[in-house]
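Please fill in the sequence for the structure shown.

STRUCTURE ENCODING:
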């Protein structure tokens, strides 16, 4: 996997992971890339310094528990952002994602539920989707 630092036309910074170096260019040409913050399709690679092993000292020595807590907070923030700014389409997610991808529905951020088979078909057809981080409150409630 190759990680690229990406920027949209509004200078929102985010990362993209690609299977091969040409995948970015291919996905960009097909209009499959967009900014997760604003939805802009004008996405470009940002200048990135190469990661060279052993040249940086770790600025923090976090414990595994601290790292876990930081990750859970970041995932909660992503989930909260999606729930506050995207449309919840419930179990119509697969149908709506495909309609947006094919230009038959308004281009907007959505979230909802899909079966494993629906997810597999969307991915195989090149529809850009990603799983929503789990809801930590729901997990805690299920454990009690």
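FILLED IN BY: designer on duty
SEQUENCE:
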């Amino acid at each position: 996997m190759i990680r690229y630092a990406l920027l949209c036309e509004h200078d929102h910074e985010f990362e993209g992971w690609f299977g091969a170096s040409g995948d970015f260019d291919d996905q960009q040409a097909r209009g499959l890339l967009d900014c997760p913050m604003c939805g802009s399709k004008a996405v470009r690679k940002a200048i990135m310094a190469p990661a060279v092993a052993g040249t940086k000292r770790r600025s923090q020595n976090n414990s595994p528990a601290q790292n876990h807590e930081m990750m859970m907070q970041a995932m909660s923030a992503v989930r909260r952002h999606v729930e506050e700014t995207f449309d919840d389409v419930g179990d119509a997610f697969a149908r709506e994602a495909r309609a947006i991808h094919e230009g038959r529905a308004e281009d907007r951020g959505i979230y909802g539920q899909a079966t494993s088979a629906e997810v597999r078909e969307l991915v195989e057809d090149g529809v850009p989707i990603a799983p929503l981080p789990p809801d930590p409150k729901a997990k805690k409630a299920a454990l009690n």
